[in-house]
Amino acid sequence: MLQLVNLSNYKSDMDLIHNRAECLQVFLQCRRLDGIEMMFCQPWDPLIHRQEWIHGVHLKFWPCWLDFWRGNQAELLSQMGSRENIAACYGGLDREAWLEIYRENIRMANRAGAEYLVFHVSHVRSLETFTGHFSAADREVIEGTIEVVNELAGEIPDETALLFENLWWPGLTLQDKKLTALLLESIKHPNVGIMLDTGHLMNTNPDLRTEEEGVDYILHTLERLGEYSRYIRGIHLHQSLSGQYVVSSKKQREHDATMTGVMQHVLKIDEHLPFTTPSVWRILEYVQPDYLVHEFLQLSMDAWTEKVSRQQRALGLGRTFE
Questions:
Q1: I need a surface site. Which of 51, 264, 276, 302 has the fewest CB within 10 A?
Q2: What are the pLDDT digits (tens) for 263-301?
């Protein structure tokens, strides 16, 4: 099992490591981490994010994309206001322009030598993040994802694993064994699997109040997947107990559906906090993942180090570091 952390080359993450490979190297060595799961938001600089550190690449994602894929111009104009805004969001006004953004992202991952790619399977409109009244069902999102990914599959080398990540919005929520099977068995790539996101899975149950309850819920969900739980190759490990906030936010009559308002709301749901209970080891014991990604929001180097350290201690992996 490789221990990784998530990182991007977005400006805030570049500032975090002071745009220096040496800074990132010290962090990885101090926590005895094997490398990173990278997200390329701009062209890759191998002098900063060295190839030997990049084991996986999280592909770009659009929370709301199904309306564009279906060509629902009326809905897109309602959401974005103009054709210019639509083109700016998706790289153009047709499917091929959007797919080319994905293809270039995959090519960059190939050049970086990524062992696996992560693909979000979810769709949600801005206002729906608040209300929970969704315009698309899980099956529609999964069927659309199959169409999109099969257009991209030719860019992915056979030896590169394509791992689908669960979320709590419509799509791959891991609540339905048959839909999970439909996704995994319909992709035209010989090396597919699941990237289990523990915090996202906890977000599907607003009744959770403790980390221990979260661990039990995650394991119960995986057991219900039966043989398809064996497709889990990696884990984005973090915890979220935001159920009370989710319930209260749905009762509000007015919502700030601007980009800033939605982002602030999502961050309150998807907390990305470290597990602190030793029982979290039960998840790793059950899954036996190839990749363990300590996935957090990096606001400062000190805070990032503390989150990784706390979770490693909970797992019993931190004792050798102290």
A1: 302
A2: 999 999 999 999 999 999 999 999 999 999 999 999 999
